[in-house]
């Protein structure tokens, strides 16, 4: 009996391992609805998976209310027929990132910082993702081929910050991340490393002991930018992950995207800011939607989001109000929206 209990615990631990959870995040629309006890969904369209694969990790899935077709977490990941529409003003590369890519896998848009596309993979496929149509195959960089990017950073002393993005850099193993991060830390003029990750709120098991040990060993400032759009995404598992990161000396920020029928409400955004602060994370940016093909149904009229933001400012102390911003091609910085 004791032996069977030990085996059961070990089997559950294996299922809860972040790599196993990541591998199991590929599901179908039909399976997603079945797990949520929904016989059908008026917006669901499985063929949209052919353009953009459906991925939902179990920790995120478990936070979606069963039987609720309008759940705000579900609507962020549900493939819809509206993704197939061609809408004027929307494009495959709304930020013109290709224009700012001197090397495969590297984007140098802002003078003092560069962005490394560490991987094309992510644990969750948010249907509004501005890189949903990004040509990752042209930017695929093998594990042993980072030297060109490292040399580029080393030869440009104005670069003081390196940002790891993707995809999501945290889908890389600790060993892979260690190799890359330590090469970056060795560059004298780089004083900060920033990681942008959706996994903290969708697959918090990724923050394991090895990852914390790695971050603690880096002799530089480390900033982690979470991507969380709704307070329902924050559970005890996410709180546990952020506490581990804080104890490792990591600065924690969050950025959100304003999304129609998901968080286009000042009260929801205020609850999000309060929930983030309670787990040691400061709100950073609240972005307007990047106009990428397939995501027009998430967009909000300018007059509406300005009204929401003005109301939000009245609900929160200033330090909990994220900066409302848009990212516009050819601008030398994010563009703060004048309210």
What does this structure look like?
There is one protein chain. The protein is α/β, with parallel strands linked by helices and 339 residues long. It is built from twelve helices and nine strands. The protein has two domains: 2-84, no CATH class; 97-336, Alpha-Beta Barrel (TIM Barrel), CATH 3.20.20. It has helices at residues 2-16, 18-23, 29-35, 58-61, 72-77, 147-154, 174-185, 199-202, 209-217, 236-247, 266-278, 302-315; strands at 106-110, 113-117, 161-165, 192-197, 221-227, 251-257, 282-287, 323-326, 335-336. A nine-stranded mixed sheet has the order 1-2-3-4-5-6-7-8-9. Strand 5 (221-227), helix 10 and strand 6 form a beta-alpha-beta unit. Helix 11 (266-278) packs across helix 12.
Question: What is the compact description of this entry?
Answer:
The chain is α/β, with parallel strands linked by helices. Helix content is 32%, strand content 14%. It has helices spanning 2-16, 18-23, 29-35, 58-61, 72-77, 147-154, 174-185, 199-202, 209-217, 236-247, 266-278, 302-315; strands spanning 106-110, 113-117, 161-165, 192-197, 221-227, 251-257, 282-287, 323-326, 335-336.
List keywords for this structure.
alpha/beta; 9-stranded mixed β-sheet; globular; 14% strand; TIM Barrel
């Amino acid at each position: 009996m004791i032996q069977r209990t030990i085996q059961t615990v070990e089997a559950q631990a294996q299922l809860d391992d972040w790599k196993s959870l990541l591998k199991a995040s590929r599901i179908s629309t039909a399976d997603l609805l079945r797990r949520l006890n929904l016989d059908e969904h008026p917006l669901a369209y499985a063929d949209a998976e052919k353009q953009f694969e459906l991925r939902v990790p179990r920790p995120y899935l478990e936070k979606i209310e069963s039987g609720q077709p309008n759940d705000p977490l579900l609507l962020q990941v549900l493939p819809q027929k509206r993704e197939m529409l061609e809408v004027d003003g929307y494009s495959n590369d709304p930020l013109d990132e290709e224009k700012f890519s001197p090397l495969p896998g590297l984007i140098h848009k802002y003078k003092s910082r560069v962005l490394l596309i560490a991987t094309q993979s992510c644990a969750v496929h948010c249907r509004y993702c501005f890189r949903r149509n990004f040509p990752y195959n042209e930017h695929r960089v093998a594990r042993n081929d980072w030297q060109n990017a490292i040399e580029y950073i080393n030869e440009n002393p104005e670069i003081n910050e390196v940002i790891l993005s993707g995809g999501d850099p945290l889908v890389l193993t600790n060993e892979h991340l260690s190799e890359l991060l330590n090469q970056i830390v060795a560059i004298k003029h780089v004083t900060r490393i920033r990681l942008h990750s959706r996994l903290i709120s969708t697959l918090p098991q990724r923050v394991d002991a090895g990852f914390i040990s790695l971050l603690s060993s880096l002799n530089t400032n480390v900033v982690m930018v979470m991507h969380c759009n709704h307070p329902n995404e924050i559970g005890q598992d996410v709180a546990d992950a952020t506490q581990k990161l804080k104890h490792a000396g990591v600065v924690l920020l969050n950025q959100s995207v304003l999304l129609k029928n998901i968080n286009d409400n000042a009260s929801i955004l205020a609850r999000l800011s309060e929930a983030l602060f309670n787990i040691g994370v400061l709100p950073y940016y609240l972005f307007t939607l990047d106009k990428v093909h397939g995501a027009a149904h998430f967009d909000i009229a300018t007059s509406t989001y300005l009204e929401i933001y003005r109301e939000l400012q009245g609900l929160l102390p200033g330090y909990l109000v994220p900066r409302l911003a848009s990212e516009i091609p050819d601008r030398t910085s994010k563009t703060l929206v004048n309210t």
